[in-house]
Design goal:
Layout lengths: L1 H44 L3 E3 L2 E5 L7 E11 L8 E12 L1 H4 L5 E17 L24 E19 L4 E13 L6 E17 L2 E18 L4 E11 L2 E3 L6
Parallel strand pairs: 5-6
Antiparallel strand pairs: 1-3, 2-3, 3-4, 4-5, 6-7, 7-8, 8-9, 9-10, 10-11
């Protein structure tokens, strides 16, 4: 009886070890292919220069989904914004449906986490913004034939420093250590977006006047989003600015 128990335990441990080794080794076979797809799709979808230094894949970190991390990613503008770095991020993590890695219909991205970032948002006097980097002609990007299919349920910006500058009216803002999380079905026409936001310090200037000085901001909100119409309405929400509670109503 003891021998049988030991034998069973040995078999179970061997299977577990084999699975661990498989999940540890498999990412190396996918790395080059996924790296090529990520570079191609990002530059195809955005009218900006996008690149990253390295890519890492894990089948364990977000099991049963796969995790793809783009290291030292940057987005740099073109034309009027040539040389403007819209985003620099130490780590952009994509959580991908594991089964889709083994299929031929494209990788399904379920979750995006952008970590440790510098963001520079710039608006010219004519109103052109450097974050307007999506092609106006949507036919240019055939999403059906795309190798990346965004079926987002969760989006996060963690530890971001944001700078905003508008050349018209000398409007500027500075947000330090911004953390944002939004959960919902981004593929639906309508969805409830559970949103949380914190900013360690917020500063705002207009016409040279310093209107907001080192404000601490916290927000939790449910937002009724009609994504197909680009309409967002605040439902349950609580905002705290320097320990003072504020309620938000209305829609944008």
């Amino acid at each position: 009886m003891k021998r049988r128990t030991k034998k069973t335990a040995a078999v179970v441990l061997s299977v577990i070890l084999l699975l661990v080794l498989t999940f540890a080794v498999l990412p190396f076979f996918f790395k080059d292919k996924v790296m090529d797809i990520a570079r191609r799709e990002l530059n195809k979808r955005l009218t900006a220069e996008v690149d990253f230094k390295d890519l890492k894949i894990s089948f364990i970190r977000n099991f049963p989904d796969a995790s793809v991390s783009l290291k030292d990613l940057y987005i740099v503008g073109k034309d009027d914004f040539e040389g403007d770095t819209l985003l620099m991020s130490k780590d952009v993590n994509l959580v991908i449906n594991l089964k889709s890695l083994f299929g031929d219909t494209g990788y399904e991205v379920k979750k995006v986490l952008i970590n440790d970032s510098k963001v520079y948002a710039h608006v010219l006097k004519d109103g052109t913004a450097n974050w307007e980097i999506f092609p106006e002609d949507t036919t240019e990007v055939d999403t059906a034939a795309s190798d990346l299919k965004f079926k987002l349920q969760d989006f996060s910006f963690n530890r971001a420093d944001v700078r905003y500058l508008s050349d018209s009216g000398s409007v500027a803002a500075k947000l330090d250590n911004l953390n944002l999380n939004v959960k919902g079905d981004f593929t639906a026409d309508s969805t409830l977006l559970a949103t949380s936001l914190t900013v360690d310090t917020l500063n705002f200037w207009n016409g040279g006047v310093h209107y907001a000085n080192n404000l601490v901001v916290k927000l939790t909100a449910d937002i009724n989003a009609r994504l197909s119409q680009n309409i967002y309405e605040f439902a349950n929400n609580e905002m705290i600015i320097n320990a003072v509670p504020v309620s938000l109503n209305g829609w944008v």
